[in-house]
Design goal:
By secondary structure, the chain is an alpha/beta fold. Helices cover about 40% and strands about 15% of the residues. The structure holds 6-{[2-(morpholin-4-yl)benzyl]amino}pyridine-3-carboxamide.
């Protein structure tokens, strides 16, 4: 997969491209990252890419032309026509389904905004989609772009060594991940749940599914609305409630 990144601070991506899953994807030739700096397309002698907002107000706005020229330069290098995505607090919230869909594309271009924002006319003419990584603001689109690139890269076949770690992963089936334990059996004064030592694969699977459903119900109940449960999931959810009720009684609630 070919990914173009439009940023005035490409050095922020150094960690992403040198260590971890994305770096390995690049080294193995499954992923290519191309950086284009809008500053290289600035027209004045100060190489400025921002200016004061029309209508007044605080801060600076990224100018359309250097961004447009940078996207066009990236587009010329991309294999085919790459969709252009602006990382923005005003975008649609990025999720695992979008990550999977993104990994199926040949190319993508991410635009990272800075200053107080981006001239709306650039967005109108050049941006296909706006994605947000959540309802909060950071100082530039670079950190959100890195987050999204990592999420997409790990969905590209062969980038994660173990393909099972994708399949078992949280969110794909609409539940949170079950709790994980590793050696030793006793640590920080706590034992590992006995069922995980039983060797009974069926019991272990049911235990993990029950804990995944319990966590989702307790922490993210909205993930469980508007969906159909299998007969097995319904049984496991009932187990959770019965367990809750008896725990509450024990604690004199
Ligand atoms: C576009 C427009 C994405 C990009 C404005 C970007 C959060 C997210 C940015 C801005 C982002 C997210 C610049 C506005 C700094 C605030 C860059 N913040 N901002 N949630 N910031 O995905 O000032």
């Amino acid at each position: 997969m070919w990914i173009g990144v439009i940023s005035v601070l490409p050095e922020l991506f150094a960690g992403l491209t040198t260590s971890g899953v994305v770096a390995r994807g690049i080294a193995e030739g499954r992923l290519h990252l191309e950086f284009v700096n809008p500053r290289d397309f600035a027209r004045d002698k100060y190489q400025s890419v921002d200016d004061r907002p029309f209508g007044g107000g605080a801060g600076m706005v990224m100018q359309a032309e250097p961004l447009a020229a940078a996207v066009s330069a990236a587009q010329r290098q991309a294999p085919g026509r790459a969709p252009v995505v602006l990382l923005s607090p005003q975008g649609r919230v990025f999720d695992q389904t979008t990550a999977q869909a993104g990994a199926g594309l040949d190319s993508l271009i991410f635009v990272c905004g800075r200053y107080e924002g981006v001239d709306e006319r650039f967005i109108q003419r050049y941006v296909d989609e706006q994605w947000s990584i959540g309802d909060f603001v950071v100082s530039g689109g670079e950190l959100p772009a890195m987050t999204v690139i990592d999420a997409i890269a790990r969905q590209i076949p062969g980038v994660l060594g173990n393909s099972r770690s994708i399949i078992d992963e949280s969110h794909l089936d609409g539940t949170l991940e079950y709790p994980q334990y590793t050696r030793p059996e006793n640590t920080v004064d706590l034992p590992v749940p006995a069922v995980l030592l039983s060797g009974d694969h069926g019991r272990i699977q049911r235990y993990r599914r029950r804990e995944a459903l319990r966590r989702t119900f307790e922490r993210r109940p909205e993930m469980l609305t508007c969906r159909v449960f299998s007969a097995e999931d319904r049984k496991l959810l009932v187990d959770c409630f019965e367990n809750e009720a008896s725990n509450a009684k024990k604690q004199n609630y």
